[in-house]
Give the backbone structure.
Amino acid sequence: MDGDTLYLVYLDAGAALDDLDERNLAQLAPGLYLVASTRTRSELYHAVKWLRHPSRLLVAPLADGPKFKGMMPGALGWLRWRQGEARRGSRPALR
């Protein structure tokens, strides 16, 4: 995870990123994802654009993990794991 940048990615709610070639991503809500990537913002933007051809797309780097409530089960655990706050155990399962 060293060298990864955390991005907030928003695209059409019906477009999933399950097959995006990224090691680390967590769905927060339909169409809303946190993605940890070594790609630049432009590279990630174009990868999503070419993969899904969404009518709406936003890719924004985050300086720190966001605060959130009411998102998909497992998303907060994934973020804590990614930030190294959950030091023991394996990567949490996401739904």
Remarks:
- Residues 41-52 form the longest helix (12 residues).
- Residues 19 and 32 are 15 Å apart (CA to CA).
